[in-house]
Amino acid sequence: MELENRISKKALKVWRISGIIKSVIGWIIVAFVYFLMQFFHWLIWVTFIAGGLGLIFSFLDIYLFPLLRWKYWRYEVREEEIELQGGVIIKRRTLIPMVRVQHVDTVQGPIYRTYHLASVIVHTAATVHEIPALEEKEADRLRISISKLARVSDEDV
Amino acid sequence: MKMYKPKRLHPISILVSLGGKIKKLLFPLLAVLFFGQKGSDKAFISLIISLIVIFFSFFSSFISWFRFTYFFEDGELRMEHGVFIRKKRHIPFERIQSIDISQGVLQRMFGLVRVQMETAGGVLSDGAEAVLSAISKREAEFIQAGFSSFKKIGQMVAAPDSTPVYQITTGQLLLLSLTSGGVGVIISAMLAFLSQMDDMVPLRKIFGRVVYPTASSLLLVVSIAFLGLFVLWIVALIRTMLKYANFTVTKNDDDLVISQGLFEKRQITIPLNRIQAIRLSESFVRQLTGYASVFIESAGGTSVSSEGSSVVLLPMVKADKINSIIGPFLKDYQITSMFNPIPKRAMYRYIFKTWYIGIPIVILSLYFLKLWGLFSLIFLLGISIWAILKFKDAGWNIENQQLSIRYRLLIRHTLFMKKNKIQALKVHESYFQRKKNLATVDAFIKSGKGMSGGHVTDLDQKDIQDIFIWYAAKKEG
């Protein structure tokens, strides 16, 4: 039983960009290790391990994880509840009844802004849930409709 | 009664706050004093440093006392504080979630009390919203009266309709003290044993030196260790006894009032409708004797209790008596012992999961300790039994509007939750779980400022579907 809505396909691009940023930082560290090892004539094979790890993580962060994460991310906002589904290695599925929703935010970082994306963040009294990388308009629409639905089914904590 | 004019706390609160600060600084100060030096003038310097630190603690305690005022107006508690930046905070009585009244030794000498109030808001600010560390009993009663019936502000209302719920018996107190801290003692015993390990086991051989322990020195070390443990145990026992002495629960209108303590008295008030879940905890020993501890998770829980944000409701009761004690006032909760087990195929996963850690330890200890390493097999057996217990205890049950889950960490927890108090439900499955058609379920509830909850690992996917459908179903209870 798959849920209806997917997040924006632009999420792939954004996640790849943040993957690249992460990898660049990683490779700077690798270069630093290489420099140290050369300079002090320490264990050369450490550089190879660091480089290998760098390659693997770059591949995962830039290619595989964004793809899988986008593929598995689904959500549905119904009158009575919000259902989220996601995860890369571990599949997760979350159910939040509308009555429990306290407030909703949309959040936009610098990368999201350039791509006109936004995240919707749903707060209950105890937990926080994020729907990442939605089209700006969709995020705004969702925020308004969730907060409306939540108000309809108001109840004490 | 001068309730409407801003005023300061009783000056004794300077000492109370100073005491708290010194308590926190005690170990660093001692470290500076005893280990920092080996010459007389250096000792002098560390003494000076300590004195300066203590002086500043006193000074800051004094200033914050001096700049803190409070008064009551319009059914609100109003406070002003802050040294450079003045902060004002108004707390309406009707917004107060729980009140915790305690009395330390210092407060007791002057007939004062410490009152701590929590409200539901303010996720960002941790801890209590308002603490009045030394006020008169009359004012405390005033706050409490305002809180339990905020419409009748101004008149002192004697607690109406108060029914006793539970009172600890001497036998229970004794049993509670004897069995509490049991785990701590065992762990410290193991640590003590491990730290002596290199004397008993020729560990030093690895490092090229040979040390043969003599029988008498070994005996001495062992007996000192046991004596130390015994003393620790006695101390823990006395502390528990003092803490839970006179433990009583009463129901006043729609509030639960828990009072406890011999020297350090405390009283906690929790409105019944703020209760989010009921938790049963059973340690090995208590489980054997058929006893359990009952906690309540409350939306206005106090963060000061050592058990986290949950509050002890019944520290020591026969598990089968719980329903008859709390049944009358927590009508919707069913303390059931009927649980649907998790499927048999999950047992191997429970066991293997502990072996991921256990097997490497066995291999390492066999490699390094040779024959002595065989003892690690006992450890492996121990954690395997623990895993089987975890498997056996894991279970769930749905009855009308209630989800009950049972799981074991080190001790066994049973959590009873109402559908309308569960904030969110989450299911996750790893690749290996998916292959076996299993998944883990997480239920979140609000507890104090944060969240709490429980999870059962490796439920059948079909059961999880049932729980999900139950939770999603429209009919609200």
Describe the secondary structure blueprint for this structure.
The complex is a heterodimer of chains A (157) and B (477).
Chain A: E1 5-6, H1 10-40, H2 44-72, E2 74-77, E3 81-86, E4 91-97, E5 101-107, H3 110-114, E6 117-124, E7 128-135, H4 136-152
Antiparallel strand pairs in A: 1-2, 2-3, 3-4, 5-6, 6-7
Chain B: H1 12-35, H2 40-66, E1 69-73, E2 76-81, E3 87-92, E4 96-103, H3 105-109, E5 112-119, E6 130-136, H4 137-148, E7 162-167, H5 170-179, H6 182-200, H7 215-244, E8 248-252, E9 255-260, E10 265-271, E11 275-282, H8 284-288, E12 291-298, E13 310-318, H9 322-326, E14 340-341, H10 346-369, H11 375-393, E15 395-399, E16 402-408, E17 412-418, E18 422-429, H12 431-435, E19 438-447, E20 450-460, H13 461-472
Antiparallel strand pairs in B: 1-2, 2-3, 4-5, 4-10, 5-6, 7-8, 8-9, 9-10, 11-12, 11-17, 12-13, 14-15, 15-16, 16-17, 18-19, 19-20
Helix pairs in contact in B: 1-2, 5-7, 6-7, 10-11
The parts of chain A where pLDDT drops under 50 for at least 5 residues are none
Q: What portion of residues of chain A is helical? A: 40-55%
Mean pLDDT of chain A: 88
- Strands in their spatial order, largest beta sheet of chain A: 1-2-3-4
Describe what you observe in this structure.
The complex is a heterodimer of chains A (157) and B (477). Chain A is an alpha+beta fold and 157 residues long. Chain A has 2 domains: 5-70; 76-156, PH-domain like, CATH 2.30.29.30. Chain A is built from 4 helices and 7 strands, in the order E-H-H-E-E-E-E-H-E-E-H. A 4-stranded antiparallel beta sheet of chain A has the order 1-2-3-4. Chain A has a 3-stranded antiparallel beta sheet with strand order 5-6-7. Chain B has 4 domains: 12-159, no CATH class; 172-244, no CATH class; 248-342 and 394-472, no CATH class; 344-391. Chain B has helices spanning 12-35, 40-66, 105-109, 137-148, 170-179, 182-200, 215-244, 284-288, 322-326, 346-369, 375-393, 431-435, 461-472; strands spanning 69-73, 76-81, 87-92, 96-103, 112-119, 130-136, 162-167, 248-252, 255-260, 265-271, 275-282, 291-298, 310-318, 340-341, 395-399, 402-408, 412-418, 422-429, 438-447, 450-460.
